[in-house]
Every structure is written in C-alpha cells, then in structure tokens.
Design a protein that fits this description.
Layout lengths: L8 E5 L12 H13 L4 E3 L12 H13 L9 E2 L5 H13 L4 E4 L10 H15 L5 E6 L1 H4 L5 H10 L4 E6 L4 H10 L4 E4 L5 H6 L4 E4 L6 H5 L8 H14 L4 H13 L16 H13 L7 H4 L1
Parallel strand pairs: 1-2, 1-8, 3-4, 4-5, 5-6, 6-7, 7-8
C-alpha cells in the first residue's frame, strides 16, 4: 500500500442505487462511480450522507466497497465512509477499508448520545485509532452537526492532530458555517480541509483549503468543477445557489435520486432506503420542471455525451 496523498479537489459523495429487492445494486453503483471518474471527479466517497450510509449495515457497506474494488475502481480514488452509531461497527468498517487497501476513511462522530463533550469526542476517535492500531490509517473527521448533533470543534481537531500526526489527515466540514471552516484553516493548516456545503467552495479555495466532498457532483460535476478554477465567476457561484434553492425544497437525497433517474431514464434510481421516502410523482415533475426552467440540462446522458 503506497502512502496516500492528502485529498484535494473535487470528490463526490456518491448516491447509492438500490435494486428491486431493496439491496445495493453493485453493478449500477460501479457504473455510476466510473462515469464520475471519467467526467473528471478526483475521487468518490461511498456511504456518506448523500449515500445514506447510516441506513446500511456493516455487511452491506463492506460488500459494496469490495464490489467497487472488483470493478477496478482504484483505492486511490476512494475515501471510505466508515462512521456508524456503534463503536464496534465503526471499528469493523474502518478495519475492513484498511485491509482492502483503502486507508483513507471519513468518520462520523457517534450520533445517538447527545450532547457529547469535547473530551468524549476526543476519546472516541483516539480509542478508535488505537483499536485499529495501524499507522497506515488516514482519518478524515466528518463535521456535520445539523445531522449528527455532535459538533467536532476546532479544539478537538487540533488535539487529535497533535496526538495522532499523519493519521488525522483532514476534515470534511459540512456545517455550512464558514467561520468554523476558517478556524480549521487557521488552526490546523497541516490538514486537508474540505467543505460539503458547495456555496462555500470558492471562499475555501481562496483561503487555502483543499476542495470539496459534495453531493451535487453526482448530477452536475462540471457545475462544481467550475468553482475550483482560478477564473471562476460570480455566475458560477450563482448557478450552484440556484440549484440548491430549487432542490432543497424537498428532502435532498430523494430529490437527488429523482434527478439522477431523469438523467438516466432509469426509475430504479428513484428509491431511497427507509426511512426516507421517494418523491411523489407530482413532486418529481415539479422539481424537474423547475430545474429545466432555471436552465439546468436534464436531458438523458445518452443524448448529451
């Protein structure tokens, strides 16, 4: 296993397609990931928030990662999301990723017991790293307090990075709070600081950040790639905000899946894992119409590329 580089650029938090039996459709997932990589995405993150990670079992997540590797997706292009509510499950997922040649892991904090103190969060991650016991591990801390209700404050990030240099490799900040992101950039400049909130990407890059792990890249990778360019424009930023203004009128994962279904003319993409529900026919039609009216091309991919 070669030393993994710090994650930079455009990474996609991949959607998880399901088969008629409700299980992960490995072939469709691999095809989706290969398409993203061919479109210039730098890497992918299976089973993050956009991929409904907490809704899948340890076995399902391990099998899907194995299937991606079997489909010749390079471990260098994968960041395995291994966070779970139970410590033992997070440990099992992280060990499996590492043993599979994927040492880079995006790890949620435990998200059931709350509130958690900074000390509790530090001990959680420290105990996990110690239990894995492998210096090859590269941990990307996942700060998404609006869902986890367990904020990873800059003080915790700095303490972990100080105690586990090299192993703590970065932070995905999906809080939508750029003040928090700016503190990470200032206090942990050795880490790869990425945002999940796409409208903050231009500010992040200008401040010396590393890039993004985001959901929009599933649908319009070129929209996000434009924000990484030195000559990005206000129009590029406005397009991303317009897209989110339309999509976030609905639960975002079912909405993203509805858009992907329209792009592929494949209704299998419509279905999320319970407890999420698919959009109704009326909701889906209204969403697609609004996007088209705003100038977003929902033409099936076979007709575009």
């Amino acid at each position: 296993m070669t030393e993994p580089a710090l994650i930079r650029g455009l990474w996609c938090a991949t959607l998880t397609p399901l088969g008629r039996d409700g299980n992960v459709d490995h072939a469709r997932l691999a095809s989706h990931v290969q398409r993203l990589l061919a479109k210039g995405v730098d890497g992918v993150v299976p089973f993050g928030t956009t991929g409904e990670g907490p809704s899948f079992s340890v076995a399902e997540r391990c099998e899907a990662l194995d299937a991606l590797l079997t489909a010749d997706v390079s471990p260098n292009r994968l960041l395995a999301a291994t966070g779970a509510a139970a410590f033992a499950d997070t440990l099992a997922l992280t060990r499996h990723a590492l043993e599979s040649g994927c040492p880079r892991c995006l790890i949620l904090p435990p998200f059931f017991w709350k509130p958690l103190t900074d000390e509790a969060l530090f001990r959680y991650y420290a105990s996990l790293i110690d239990a894995v016991g492998d210096a090859r591990l590269r941990v990307y801390l996942y700060h998404i307090p609006q869902l986890s209700a367990a904020p990873i404050r800059p003080e915790v990030v700095v303490r972990l990075s100080t105690n586990y240099p090299g192993i703590i490799a970065g932070v995905k900040d999906s809080s939508g709070d750029f003040e928090h992101t700016a503190q990470l950039l200032e206090r942990a400049p050795e880490l790869s600081i990425l945002v999940g909130h796409e409208p903050h990407l231009v500010r992040l890059m200008r401040a010396g950040g590393a890039g993004t792990i985001c959901g929009i890249a599933n649908l319009f990778p070129e929209l996000i790639a434009a924000l990484l360019k030195p000559d990005t424009t206000a129009d590029d930023e406005s397009r991303v905000r317009t897209f989110l203004d339309i999509v976030l009128r609905y639960p975002f994962v079912p909405a993203f899946k509805a858009i992907r279904a329209a792009q592929t003319r494949d209704s299998a993409w419509l279905v999320p894992r319970p407890p999420l529900l698919p959009l109704t026919d009326d909701e889906r039609a209204t969403l697609i119409s609004a996007l088209r009216s705003a100038g977003f091309d929902i033409t099936p991919e076979a007709e575009r590329w």
